[in-house]
Amino acid sequence: MLVLLAGIFVVHIATVIMLFVSTIANVWMVGSSNLGTASSGLWLLCNKTCQQLPVSSRDEASLKAVQAFMILSIIFSVIALVMFIVQLFTLEKGKRFYITGAIMLVCWMCILIGVSIYTARFTGKLPEATSSHHGYCFILAWICFCFSFIIGILYLVLRKK
């Protein structure tokens, strides 16, 4: 049981770190332009230098929603990690980690909404690029989506022995 708890804890920490990286780094879309390789994220557009991401007024609300949901997912993931540690030392034997699982599933839902909006609105839209594809941050966000769902379900099922 201790090995299972340690494994879930390590995967949860890895998920938090990957969420930070995917939200902060500016490699959601990568493409080639006349100046070289260009990448854009949730915050900046980078060619040789980085500048504010140019977004049309029609897409501005969508970008702000993606930014907000990714930040919320980080917050809920950290809260779930803290709640897991608190419940690990305060729960009686035989009780389940319901609160931690519920918070992690809220994190899962925030990732789902944020990445889905980005996929629907910004896929293939890299300014000044001829061909574009998804970068590693986009892929990390989907991996975090999977991990947070699995961790959330495991917390709901997991019983402290």
From TrEMBL:
Keywords: Glycoprotein, Membrane, Transmembrane, Transmembrane helix. The chain crosses the membrane at residues 7-29, 65-85, 97-118, 138-158. Coiled coil: none annotated. It is found in: Membrane. It is a multi-pass membrane protein. One of its GO terms (cellular component) is plasma membrane. It holds the Pfam family PMP22_Claudin. PROSITE patterns: PMP22_1, PMP22_2. The keyword Cell wall biogenesis/degradation does not apply. InterPro entries: PMP-22/EMP/MP20-like (IPR050579), PMP22/EMP/MP20/Claudin (IPR004031), PMP22_EMP_MP20 (IPR004032). Belongs to the PMP-22/EMP/MP20 family. PANTHER family: EPITHELIAL MEMBRANE PROTEIN 1, EPITHELIAL MEMBRANE PROTEIN-RELATED. This is Epithelial membrane protein 1. It comes from Steatornis caripensis. The lineage of its organism: Eukaryota, Metazoa, Chordata, Craniata, Vertebrata.
